[in-house]
Amino acid sequence: MTRPTWQWVLGWLGFAAFLVTFIFYAASGLLAPAWAVVLLGAIWLVLLAVAVRLLLTRRPLHVLVVPIAAGLIWFGVLTAGEMWLGWTG
Fold this sequence. Notes:
By secondary structure, this protein is an all-alpha fold.
């Protein structure tokens, strides 16, 4: 059974929103040390694989959760690094 077109449009919009989060992950080097930027990059790549898999397995609406998760993870890691590890910009 195929999904309605509006679900695919929302799924691709969610994927585009996820791609925008790469800018924040890439700019993390301004605050975080190199090892943390590499870790964040690996997390972003895992989330990319999840988003692509959701699109390919015909679950486009689930892709909308991926950019939200990416933003929360990025914010959480940088905030925790500032508070507990003394990262400064």
